[in-house]
Specification:
The chain contains two helices and eight strands. By secondary structure, the chain is of the alpha+beta class.
Length: about 140
C-alpha cells in the first residue's frame, strides 16, 4: 500500500513537468522594397514619411510600436524582433501614439537610409499635411 501511494504521489508531482505553454507574438509585417523616405521630427528621431503606421528610425534601427510592445529591425525589408522597455530609446517611448502616423511636413527628408557613407537630402517646398491628412 505504501509503495502504491508513493507511485501516485510521484506521478502527480511529476505531472507539471509535462505541461506545455505556448506563447505567440505577432511580429510586424511592415516591409519596404527600398529604404523609405524619412522625415526628421526631432534631433536623432526620424519617421517614415506619409505612411499608414508610425515607423521610426532611431540609432540605425527602424522601430514600430504595437500596443505596449516595441519591435525593431535594421533592415527595411523586415526581420522584426521584440525589444523590452529598457532597450527602447526614450525619445520615441515618450511620443504619444499616433502623433506621426501619415506624417508629412515641409522639413528635411532623408532619401537614403542614414548610416555610413553619403546621405542625400531633399527639402520640401510648400505646405505639408498633418497626421490627419489635412493641408496645413
Amino acid at each position: 500500500m505504501r509503495i502504491r501511494t508513493l507511485v501516485v504521489v510521484a506521478s502527480v508531482v511529476a505531472l507539471p513537468a509535462f505541461a506545455q505553454v505556448q506563447i505567440s507574438v505577432q511580429l510586424p509585417t511592415v516591409t519596404f522594397n527600398a529604404p523609405p523616405p524619412l522625415v526628421v521630427v526631432e534631433p536623432g528621431v526620424q519617421v517614415v514619411e506619409d505612411f499608414d503606421e508610425e515607423v521610426y528610425f532611431v540609432s540605425d534601427y527602424y522601430w514600430v510600436r504595437r500596443g505596449p510592445r516595441w519591435y525593431r529591425t535594421k533592415d527595411h525589408r523586415g526581420g522584426w524582433v521584440v525589444v523590452d522597455g529598457p532597450g527602447v530609446p526614450a525619445s520615441i517611448v515618450r511620443v504619444p501614439e499616433g502623433k506621426y502616423r501619415r506624417y508629412k511636413r515641409g522639413k528635411t527628408v532623408i532619401i537614403d537610409t542614414p548610416g555610413p557613407g553619403k546621405v542625400k537630402v531633399k527639402k520640401h517646398k510648400g505646405k505639408g499635411r498633418d497626421r490627419d491628412g489635412d493641408d496645413d
